[in-house]
């Protein structure tokens, strides 16, 4: 992966996840009398990403957590609610820790789905604040969808070996089709939200119906099904446009919404912490990638030892060579992974141990796809037998010299 593609993939994955955090922070701020503060949020997460790249290029990955108190202070001074400030200070750094360890450790698809579900939630469990900032919530989700898909298209076109003109044409075509699809969905967006709200309300009513035998308080509670509202245009006399107002007497208003939300929040926090501490592994950074100036994209889980199933080749010459290399490994003279035969021969100085002609024959036929006849097979087999004999004699001589 080129440096440019790595950087773009890193930034795209990180910023995609930050849209979900922005949605949550906006919800917390507006329900606690704070301003939206979208621009300060974007500046903070971009500054944290830049600072983390600087820190990881010179220090260990864990040092990025030194930014946490500074980010928390900046968020509080910027006017964020204390809970939103805590989320801004911790979650971006946590996400950066895993991305610096493995840039392909992405949850962008989950972010897109969760943000959409939260958008539906703000349209069902409405409050005065969510109604007042409804445009902000919808713009955040639409920006997330646009950024996610166009960014994926652009990143996949980098480094594919195509000419620049073809890449530009492909990007414009695919992005245009995506925007056309988005515009078409925008025309029926009102109906999509209504259908989603209807399905969620139907599921909630079914859940309440199932719990009624156990909870007496739920006997008289039923959420009214949403109605498809049509836009009302001003008449010819110049009357003002009729705007939808927040209805305090709706069925949702009679529910103990705050108690339900607090309970769900506590359950969600406990579940997330349990899963996090159960499955979390200490990130590691490859030393080679550190020397090159950027973290290697080797996953922590992929570095764990896994049993490798070895298949014995069916071709008889290959099978003889397979047994020979297995025999060498037992003598601590085997080849390293990705080590070529000439490199292996130079490392062990095999030219001083094995006859050069036999070694040359082995090198030339080791990866040959040609099937040998009976005569050649006997020659190759005898060649391996003599190589084993010479190596055994060398090992015995070496052990004899060590005893002296």
From TrEMBL:
Taxonomic superkingdom: Bacteria
Ranges in coiled-coil conformation: 377-404
Transmembrane segments: 7-30, 36-55, 67-94, 106-125, 137-158, 170-192, 199-218, 259-277
Swiss-Prot/TrEMBL keywords: Coiled coil, Membrane, Transmembrane, Transmembrane helix
Protein name: DUF4129 domain-containing protein
Source organism of this protein record: Candidatus Salinicoccus stercoripullorum
